[in-house]
């Protein structure tokens, strides 16, 4: 097996190489002045079992194209191509929310498979069933265990707070891993403006440490509103735990201003001003399971 650290590999490719005792190569890449991507891979030989680590954070479309270039370019040489995609972009666009919406994740999955990728491993996608849209083998590293392990010892008498009913399953898994209860709010998002409004009762959280859990933070609006609700419900302190810290614009400031004392995330995105959980060893286990 050889592991390629893609231009957006977040260092996970290198770590996988170390953990799996495999050769790991950096991929040479650059952008031409007009914005086109150039990717060069040296060292892959006929029959190699190739793993490409490439996360799909912003600029998502560029990172998707780089992954497709690598896979399609190597398919004639490699015996097998596995893509490790810590953050799977477009997973939220898994259905037409308003008339005419494209189901973008279906297109992404189709392109990955058609480029010669036979297996993908990702971390905590927005909805787990998007993996069924991939024609090859798909594996998921859930955030519950790595996150609970990181939180353990840093919080006291926790309660998990899901910002919406859609996050209940995720909340219940983390709550189980932390050995605590969970509650949820209800979130409405205006599909045109993106504005969110939060409602619902959390009950009395006094004396509790609220762990606001979500799959990702984009603008921070959801997490900030949930932190605010938890503190208003009496929580002793609030932290935010999300798998993917995309942190668009002032997301961090919004969340901290709302009262979160800490933000936790995985290394699926190169955001470092948070407590980061390295998911490489969990990905390595899935990789072993695929062999
Ligand atoms: C949406 O359903 C997702 O699970 C997240 O709650 C959402 O993407 C977070 O976005 P933002 O940080 O912009 O509120």
Protein architecture, described:
This protein has 291 residues and is α/β, with parallel strands linked by helices. The chain folds into 2 domains: 2-141, Rossmann fold (3-Layer(aba) Sandwich); 144-277, Rossmann fold. It is 29% helix and 28% strand. It contains 8 helices and 16 strands. The protein has helices at residues 12-20, 60-74, 104-114, 144-151, 168-178, 221-232, 251-258, 280-290; strands at 2-5, 23-26, 28-31, 37-40, 49-53, 80-85, 119-123, 137-141, 158-162, 181-184, 186-189, 196-199, 209-217, 237-245, 260-266, 275-277. A 6-stranded parallel sheet has the order 2-1-5-6-7-8, sandwiched between helices. The protein has a 6-stranded parallel sheet with strand order 10-9-13-14-15-16, sandwiched between helices. It has a two-stranded antiparallel ribbon with strand order 3-4. A hairpin with a 6-residue loop joins strand 11 (186-189) and strand 12. Helix 6 (221-232) runs parallel beside helix 7 (251-258). The chain is globular and about 60 Å long. The model has no long low-confidence stretch (mean pLDDT 96). Bound molecules: ribose-5-phosphate. Ribose-5-phosphate binds at residues 92, 126, 163, 166, 214-223.
């Amino acid at each position: 097996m050889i592991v390629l650290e893609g231009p957006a590999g977040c260092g996970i490719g290198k770590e996988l190489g170390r953990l799996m005792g495999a050769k790991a190569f950096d991929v040479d890449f650059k952008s031409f002045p007009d914005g086109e991507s150039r990717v060069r891979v040296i060292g892959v030989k006929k029959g190699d079992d190739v793993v490409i680590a490439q996360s799909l954070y912003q600029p998502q479309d560029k990172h998707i194209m780089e992954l497709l270039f690598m896979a399609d370019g190597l398919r004639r040489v490699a015996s097998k191509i596995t893509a490790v995609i810590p953050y799977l972009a477009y997973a939220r666009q898994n259905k037409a929310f308003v008339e005419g919406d494209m189901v973008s994740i279906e297109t992404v999955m189709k392109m990955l498979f058609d480029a010669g990728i036979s297996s993908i491993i990702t971390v905590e996608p927005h909805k787990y069933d998007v993996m069924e849209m991939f024609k090859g083998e798909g594996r998921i590293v859930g955030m519950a265990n790595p996150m609970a392990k990181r939180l353990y010892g840093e919080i006291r008498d926790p309660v998990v707070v899901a910002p919406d009913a859609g996050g209940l399953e995720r909340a219940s898994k983390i709550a189980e891993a932390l050995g605590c209860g969970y509650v949820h709010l209800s979130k409405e998002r205006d599909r045109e403006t993106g504005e969110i409004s939060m409602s619902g009762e959390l009950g009395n959280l006094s004396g509790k440490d609220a762990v606001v859990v979500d799959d990702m933070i984009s603008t921070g609006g959801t997490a900030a509103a949930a932190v605010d609700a938890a503190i208003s419900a009496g929580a002793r302190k609030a932290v935010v735990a999300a798998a993917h810290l995309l942190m668009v614009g002032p997301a961090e400031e919004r969340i901290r201003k709302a009262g979160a004392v800490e933000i936790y995330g995985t290394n699926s995105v190169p955001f470092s001003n948070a407590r980061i959980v390295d998911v490489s060893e969990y990905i390595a286990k899935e990789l072993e399971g695929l062999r």
